[in-house]
Amino acid sequence: MKLNIKSATPGLNLNNFDAEDIGDVLLKIEKSFDIAFADNDLKEAKTFGALCDVVVAKVKHAQADSCTTQQAFYKLRSAINAKNPTEKYLVKPQTKLCELFPRDNRIEVVADIEAEMGFHMNLLQPKPWVVWMFGLLLVGSVALFWINSTVATLGLIVSIAGLRLAGRFGKELKVKTIGDLAEKIAREHYLKCRRDASTVNRAEIVQKVKELFAESFHLELSVLTKEAKFA
Fold first, then answer.
1. Phi-psi region of 72 (alpha: psi -120 to 50; beta: other; left: phi over 0)
2. Distance (Å, whole) CA 153 – CA 165
3. Alpha-carbon span 193 to 32, nearest angstrom
4. Is the Cβ–Cβ distance between 190 and 197 less than 8 Å?
5. Whose CA is closest to 182, among 198, 194, 196?
6. For residue 54, which of 66, 36, 71 has the smallest C-alpha distance?
7. Residue 48: CB partners within 8 Å, gap ≥ 6?
8. Pairing state between β 199-200 and 172-173
């Protein structure tokens, strides 16, 4: 599943993506739609459109025209109200997550809601400066191996442990509103957000694949045309 994207749009350079990063997006697609790519499935997928065709072909569920993002919102609202006395009419797409998930007990509240929904929302993250600090320590420790292997090893242990703890106990929200979160979980857990997980809205599949690529590589959706090439 090693692919590199090369844009057919003049002036854009999309052929420098790391193959492992693209592989990570393909794993997200598999997880979201409950499919699995065989080794030869993507061999002939030379364009982004062809990749989307492979995904659509693999999703065998029955067709239903309902909106998955809307269903994700209702599922999210129900989970919040099941764990929180907040009235339903107060939970709207524009409701700010910081108001529903107070910082003091944010990790616990989010964990409770995830348990209610049945999947990990990947909503929280550490402060950027914390990641940068331990990341720089990690790089510096690798460089130190040429000078002092003992100090370098200690630095590696501290940086790796720090990054893991930061990821586990980070309280920063990745998105701002309930609507943003509904969109996020709808693309990352498509079938689990459906009211009837045996159905899909086929008109949404390509859009969700686009969103997964765009979110992972910080791209505009318009870049991911059918003609964008894998090289």
1. alpha
2. 18
3. 10
4. no
5. 194
6. 36
7. 5, 213, 224, 225, 226, 227, 228, 229, 230
8. unpaired
Q: What is the pLDDT of residue 231?
A: 61
pTM of the predicted protein model: 0.84
Residue that is written with structure tokens 């107060």 in the block:
90
**Block mean pLDDT (10 aa), the chain, length 231:** 49 55 90 91 82 92 95 94 70 92 93 94 93 91 88 91 89 96 97 94 94 90 82 61
CB 165 within 8 A of CB 130: no
Amino acid occupying residue 75: K
Q: How far apart are the two ends of the chain, measured CA to CA in Å? A: 12
Q: Which pLDDT value is given to residue 13?
A: 38
How far is C-alpha 173 from the geometric centre of its chain's CA atoms? 13
The CA-atom distances, in angstroms, between 190 and each of 32, 54, 63, 89, 176 are 5, 17, 14, 25, 20
Q: How many whole angstroms separate alpha carbon 15 and alpha carbon 128?
A: 27
> The tokens of 18 are what?
């790391």
Q: Where are the beta strands (DSSP E) in the chain?
A: 5-6, 62-63, 124-125, 172-173, 199-200, 229-230
The alpha carbons of the chain give a radius of gyration, in whole angstroms, of 20
- DSSP SS3 for 125: strand
Place of tokens 């129900």: 78
